[in-house]
Write a structure and sequence with these properties.
Elements: H1 6-29, E1 33-38, H2 44-56, E2 60-65, H3 75-82, H4 98-105, E3 108-114, H5 116-124, H6 130-137, E4 142-146, H7 150-154, H8 156-167, E5 171-172, E6 176-179, E7 185-189, H9 193-203, E8 213-218, E9 223-224, E10 230-231, H10 238-249, E11 253-258, E12 270-273, H11 277-285, E13 293-296, E14 303-305, E15 324-326, H12 330-335, E16 342-349, H13 353-364, E17 368-373, E18 384-391, E19 394-402, H14 403-418, H15 424-433
Parallel strand pairs: 1-2, 1-3, 3-4, 4-5, 8-11, 8-13, 11-12, 13-16, 16-17
Antiparallel strand pairs: 6-7, 9-10, 14-15, 17-18, 18-19
Helix pairs in contact: 1-9, 2-3, 2-9, 4-6, 5-8, 10-14
């Protein structure tokens, strides 16, 4: 028992719980784009703390307010907390993105507080203010955190609107029960910011790969010509790092074996830095014990100099002949092991994408190939990509999108095909916890 009894103990436990939620959310929300809609309710003051917590967890946050919401908390407060302009009206001078681009920006959209009027407008598919229009236009997951008087929450009209939103796939988080601003007590309080933070973070934790050991390779390799020069390629490593993050968010234990890139290691992922194809192969093989999924995203050199010079090569002749030999084939080596993990490879092609993807899958003996075109504005050095997934007897195209979103789609496809039962019941149970 702490000194002071329960009156001291409860605040201590609340602070400890908030710290644990924050640490968990740091992994799952880092780099995620959260669009927070705020409607006109007194609970809008809680949303300021939610923005602060999201930023502390590494998320990018943009705030969209109704005109009524600005009567409770000023837009400048949210601009200061988010570090971004606040969207309040169709005619905002800083709203250069437009409502469609704003809708596409988000990885997840949360309306908190969501008043009874807002729930009704969303259920009707209204688009006559910016918040409603963005909710209608966005393809990102949408959640609402109801906040209203208990009588309004329990009214059959509100219950019908909530039921309709749930049928359309909208997450309903809350409300909680307790004392309300009107002086009454009952269901209708918006969930606390820490609870919404946890619900948001868990929305990115599908559990589809819960407990699965995953090894991902990323980036280029460098094959030395001499002490100052090397053969390499234009791979930025962004796709591999996005896949490591997506696998982590799906509950996997992830090791990322990375060539030289200008990227920070994802939170909660073990990163091993290497340079040459041989070093990458060695690092991968050392981590095969217990590995159940291997995703070979790295752009590994096909050839390396047979005899790297020990001293800098001087410019002396009109031409220079380099003798090259095949570099180690990491994907084929792992696929040939017994036992071996599920193997997914990547293929960067400039032409005949589907034919070369199927050919590579058969040649390497792997379950799946994710192929993409490379060239100006595609693949290398880009934040966007598009993929063709091929497996025995089937294929699927993933339309051009941010690499972070493509990574989540690819991880979901892998989990569905090769790990169909991992974590599904846990994920379903989590969402039930936050629904009324």
């Amino acid at each position: 028992m702490l000194p002071g009894g329960a009156a001291v103990k409860r605040p201590f436990h609340r602070r400890l719980w908030a710290l644990l939620v924050h640490c968990r959310s740091m992994n799952l929300l880092a780099g995620k784009r959260i669009l927070l809609g705020i409607s006109g309710g007194i609970a809008a003051y809680k949303s300021a703390e939610l923005v602060r917590l999201l930023r502390a967890a590494g998320a990018e946050v943009r705030v969209l307010m109704t005109a009524a919401a600005t009567g409770f908390v000023g837009a400048q407060t949210f601009q200061a907390l988010s570090g971004q302009p606040v969207y309040c009206d169709w005619n905002d001078e800083h709203d250069a993105m437009g409502h469609i681009e704003l809708a596409r920006w988000a990885d997840f959209m949360l309306v908190a507080p969501a008043t009874a009027d807002t729930l009704a407008r969303l259920a009707q598919g209204r688009a006559d203010d910016l918040l409603a229009a963005v909710c209608l236009a966005s393809e990102a997951p949408l959640a609402v955190a109801p906040a209203m008087n208990r009588g309004m929450w329990q009214h059959p009209a509100t219950r019908a609107n909530v039921s309709l939103l749930r049928e359309r796939g909208v997450h309903v988080w809350g409300p909680a029960e307790g004392e309300q601003a009107c002086g009454e007590s009952g269901p209708g309080r918006m969930l606390e910011p820490t609870e919404l933070l946890q619900a948001l973070s868990q929305s990115f934790a599908s559990g589809r790969l819960a407990g699965v050991e995953v090894v991902v390779t990323a980036g280029p390799t460098r094959e030395p010509l001499d002490p100052v020069r090397f053969l390499s390629n234009r791979s930025s490593g962004k796709m591999g790092y996005a896949l490591a993050t997506a696998a982590r968010d799906a509950g996997a234990r992830v090791t990322l074996v990375s060539g030289p890139v200008a990227l920070e290691a994802p939170e909660g992922v073990e990163r091993v830095l290497v340079e040459t194809a041989q070093e990458m192969l060695q690092a991968v093989l050392e981590r095969m014990e217990g590995c159940r999924l291997f995703i070979a995203t790295a752009a590994v050199a096909d050839y390396r100099p047979r005899h790297p010079a020990q001293e800098k090569i001087k410019k002396q002749a009109d031409e220079l002949v380099l003798r090259l030999e095949p570099a180690p084939d990491i994907l084929a080596t792992v696929a040939a092991r017994t036992p071996r993990p599920v193997c997914v490879g990547f293929a960067a092609e400039t032409q005949e994408l589907e034919r070369y993807a199927h050919r590579k899958r058969l040649a390497k003996g792997v379950e799946m190939i994710a192929a993409n075109r490379v060239g100006a504005g595609l693949g290398f050095d880009s934040d966007d990509n598009e993929l063709l997934l091929v497996w025995e007897g089937g294929s699927r195209r993933l339309a051009r999108d941010r690499k972070s979103r493509l990574a989540r789609q690819l991880v979901d496809e892998i989990a569905t095909r090769y790990f169909p039962r991992s974590g599904e019941e846990k994920a379903a149970g989590h969402h039930a916890k936050y629904s009324a």
